[in-house]
Amino acid sequence: MVLAREEGRLEAAEYAALVRSSGLDRPVDDLPRMAAMLAGADLVVTARDDAGQLLGAARSVTDFAWCCYLSDLVVTKERQRGGLGRLLLAETKRAVGPGCMVLLLSTPSAMGYYPRLGMERVPNGFLIRRDG
After folding, report:
1. How far, in Å, CA of 14 to CA of 18, rounded?
2. Under 8 Å CB-to-CB from 63, ≥6 apart: which residues?
3. Gyration radius (Cα) of the chain, Å
4. Torsions phi, psi for 44 (to 5 deg)
5. Within the chain, how many helices (H) and strands (E) appear?
6. Residue 129 — φ and ψ, nearest 5°?
7. Quick check: 19 and 71 in contact, CB under 8 A?
8. In CATH, what class is 2-110?
9. Where do the N-acetyltransferase domain residues begin and end (predicted)?
10. CA nearest 22: which of 109, 92, 117, 102?
11. Is 64 exposed, middle or buried (0-12, 13-18, 19+ CB in 10 A)?
């Protein structure tokens, strides 16, 4: 398994295929929007097998100093529950550094997952939902 930073290099179609295979709800049929999501990410950590197959990714928006919003943590269904999400999260935290917090918004079905990775549940948040 190879972990790498791929911001600016990961293709939207490959990323959409990974997200689709993970079960995460994202606009995978809207490739221009997926491309914009990747283009706006400051940090994209990927996990690939030895043949180069994309197995997982962590896509974040960050200033590398104070805050990091981990917007997607995705692992292909076949590799879920094998520690890959934990590795991607650890590499994201390593990349942003010790002075930077990592925040994410969870899907309802994954609310029990993140505490097992050592993430703290926080009640002090606010949200303006997207319109589309």
Report:
1. 6
2. 42, 100
3. 14
4. -130, 110
5. 4, 5
6. -70, 155
7. no
8. alpha beta
9. 2-132
10. 109
11. middle
What does the DSSP 8-state code read for residue 10? S
pTM: 0.92
Residue 89 and residue 101 in contact, taking contact as beta carbons nearer than 8 Å: no
User: Under the phi-then-psi rule, with left for phi > 0, alpha for psi from -120 to 50, and beta for the rest, what region is 83?
Assistant: left
Both tokens of 3, joined, read 């972990």
Please list the pLDDT of the chain residue by residue as tens digits (132 residues): 899 999 999 999 999 999 999 999 999 999 999 999 999 999 999 999 999 999 999 999 999 999 999 999 999 999 998 999 999 999 999 999 999 999 999 888 888 889 988 899 998 888 888 887
8-state DSSP, 8: T
Helices (H), 25-81: 31-39
In the block, residue with structure tokens 């002075």: 99
Element holding 19 (H helix, E strand): helix 12-22
